[in-house]
């Protein structure tokens, strides 16, 4: 096992693009499991590290806080879904740009979530959320 671990670590160091792709895939899988499958507990168990640090001022730190919040949210909003528009990665950070809707008729919100990944697990989170207005000052979309 030591050889394979050393080989994997060496390979990822020499091929940073592979590590970035793995981190993007990890965050994508977390996002789809947590939000489209509405399986917050499963997402946290599979993809989040033991110490989850939260930078949203309205959310407490920790995996249980995430699970408790989203289990309650999905009970109130069972039609809530997200559409990932793009995922970017640099070093140990992964940014996800998302269209989040509470139901099919909802205009929704533009969301940017930034995650720090360490040892194959999400350990830190920042977010910015903006309502999609009925009228825009320009003809561009938010995505």
Would you give an account of this structure?
- The protein is α+β, with helices and mostly antiparallel strands.
- The protein has one domain: Nuclear Transport Factor 2, Chain: A.
- It contains 4 helices and 5 strands.
- It has a 5-stranded mixed beta sheet with strand order 1-5-4-3-2.
- β3 and β4 form a beta hairpin.
Task: Write out key terms for the chains shown.
4 helices, globular, alpha+beta, 143 residues, 5 strands, Nuclear Transport Factor 2, Chain: A
What's a quick, concise take on this entry?
With 143 residues, this protein is an alpha+beta fold. It has helices at residues 2-14, 16-36, 40-47, 63-76, and strands at 48-54, 81-90, 93-101, 109-118, 121-131.
Give the helix/strand layout.
Elements: H1 2-14, H2 16-36, H3 40-47, E1 48-54, H4 63-76, E2 81-90, E3 93-101, E4 109-118, E5 121-131
Parallel strand pairs: 1-5
Antiparallel strand pairs: 2-3, 3-4, 4-5
> What is the name of the CATH class?
Alpha Beta
Q: What pattern of helices and strands is seen along the backbone?
A: HHHEHEEEE
Q: Which whole number gives the mean pLDDT?
A: 93
**How many structural domains does the protein architecture include?**
1
Helicity, as a percent range: 25-40%
Look at the helices and sheets and give the structural class: alpha+beta
Based on Cα principal axes, name the global outline.
globular
Low-confidence stretches: none
Strand arrangement, major sheet: 1-5-4-3-2
The end-to-end distance, rounded to whole angstroms, is: 44 Å
